[in-house]
Design a protein that fits this description.
With 121 residues, this protein is α/β, with parallel strands linked by helices. It is built from four helices and four strands, in the order βαβαβαβα. The chain has one domain (9-116): Rossmann fold (3-Layer(aba) Sandwich). The chain has helices at 30-37, 53-68, 81-93, 107-116; strands at 9-14, 41-46, 72-74, 97-99. Strand 1 (9-14), helix 1 (30-37) and strand 2 form a beta-alpha-beta unit. The protein is globular. It starts with 8 loop residues before the first strand and ends in a 5-residue tail after the last helix.
Amino acid sequence: MEKNRVVCLITLVSDNIDSYMFHTPNIHWTILQAQAMGIPLLSWPTKGQKEEELQDLKAAIADAKMRYGIEGVVTGAIESVYQAARVQRICGIWTCGASIPYGRSTRWIIYNCCYHLDLKS
């Protein structure tokens, strides 16, 4: 079994609440996730304009690669083939891997857990 180490979190903070690429509700809480994990957070602004926001993602990944030597990206895209394809393409540009462990095939597990825990999105 291959083991990887998470060295940083990357959060793109979109000005557009209807961003095609990035989650916006409660995004400010990612700092607590990074603190709990004991790793740095790279918080990157984006205007959230369709396709243009990908340039911000490229820049954030390039910065993480330079500062922390990342070799891959793990994304939480659950429903979106649009998001997954773009993350994979950008990672290909930076010769780093892209992993989408919670993709469409596992979304029912996540939804079921949220339902049973009475979590609201």
